[in-house]
Amino acid sequence: MTAAQNGPQPGLIVVDKPQGITSHGVVARMRRICGTRKVGHGGTLDPMATGVLIVAVGKATKLLTYVSGLDKSYAATIRLGRSTVTDDAEGEATATADASAVADEAIRAGLAAMTGEIDQVPSAVSAVKIDGQRAYKRVRDGEAVELKPRRVTIAAIEVLAIRREGSFVDVDVDVSCSSGTYIRAIARDLGAALDVGGHLTALRRTRIGGFGLDTAATLETLAERSDAGDPLGTLTMGDAAARLMPTRTATDAEAKALSYGKPLAAAGIEGRYAVLDAGGDLLAVMTEHGDTAKPETVFAAAN
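== tRNA pseudouridine synthase B ==
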């Protein structure tokens, strides 16, 4: 019996996105695998990129709000010696230079200068909206686009290897950064700082918050599990919430109050947290204001 016949279990699934498909394309595939249209994703990946994409099923789509702001990690390859219109390998070249004389020390120093809290200009071919229209749509329509810098935090850029290919230099890096950071922009800006141009040739997301490749499954594996009637490996709502934020366990009386959207007495927990019942099911996400804990999102509403 397939997942569609069993009915989808609400929760989060960590998908290892393949190259050459959009994040929306992954959602379309997951709708067929899970047998429901109520599927969404958190944290868009470009078609060229692979790796961790969090997919929510059923009422777990409400949890995606709390996924979008999580820190992320990437493995990437930067090619120095060529600039492209998209700042990655999918765009047409706009300039080419001989990067063979660029020293390893200059590359490492250039990347080090981009760590910390910085103002980064997003790639022109990005999902940033300008007057209600995506920047990438304007660029593809032949329009010149200028985007304002955004404050991001790049916690670390580790250089794994520097490889020289004729006039090009390929730099393999691991990047840990805040949400909203464009890895393509790091490649572009490093090339500009070294005066040889640069673009991204490979990108793999290895982590979103507490969700990593170690728990990810390919679309092919998920389809095979569904066809065999096996569990998809969905993280339950409670388990998913526990990876996203602190938790609190409610008494039976508190669980009933929450089902009606009522506040609870504060528990002294700072920031946003999840409330679970005794069985580990997610009841609500709350924040505290003085002596009162107010529900922000209720998942177990009264019938």
